[in-house]
Amino acid sequence: MPSPNEPKIYLLPNLMTAGNLFCGFAATLRIIEAATLVTNGHSAGTLYHEAIAFILGACVFDLLDGRLARLGGHESPFGREFDSLADTISFGIAPALLVYQIVLRDFQRTGWLIAFFFLLCGTLRLARFNCVAAANADKPEKDFSGFPIPAAAGLIASLTLFMLWLQADDRTIGPWKHALPPLLIFLSFMMFSHVKYPSFKSVNWRTQRSISGFLGLIFLLAFTAMNYQWMPAVLFVSFLIYGFVRPFISKTIRKEIEEDETDEPESPVI
Known about the structure:
- This protein is an all-alpha fold.
- Helices cover 66% and strands 2% of the residues.
- Strands 1-2 form a two-stranded antiparallel ribbon.
């Protein structure tokens, strides 16, 4: 007989979280395999591409798990903790290891510290988020304070993909790789900044748009898929900048962008 304290595991949202965790694990394996190839004097461009694809795939799974949980009203403390543990792998370890293998390994101990600093800040941010979500379970906030760690990982992965695309052979990154360590440090501080970012929790399966808005979204998705080498980087950079310009945008335009059409409190993400 199960213990009364045994947590309930809701199937669909936690399956998405498991998918997130799998992508982070697969990305980590690909980066380790790339390190072996580089050590033996071979090109690791294909493995880097696969690792980046897994990190971006984890972003998609992370987006879906919260939406499914809120849609069915299946938020749970178990889901919230499981999600954060998966995020630590997919958005903490994987991108830090990716940047370390590409460029930070050349700086030895300093490279270790920079990669670990990003992982530390990301993990602390996830722990802080869980504490705030648990304390404000009855009235969760609609905005994120600081840059979300999935967006930080997506930005690192998409920019790395863009750098690979800039090279003619599509297998090496070249001198652009030296922009990654400062970016890693900057995003580490951004995760604990007071810059507000929308959580887009009001965007769900019941969100309605005009036909023109729907067609525009379809065009954006199709254009991104057709230009996957650089368009994801544009989207993540735009989101990063949006937090800085958001206070200067009118409330009407912000509502249109963020789909903030209701004042009803949202449940915390799983």
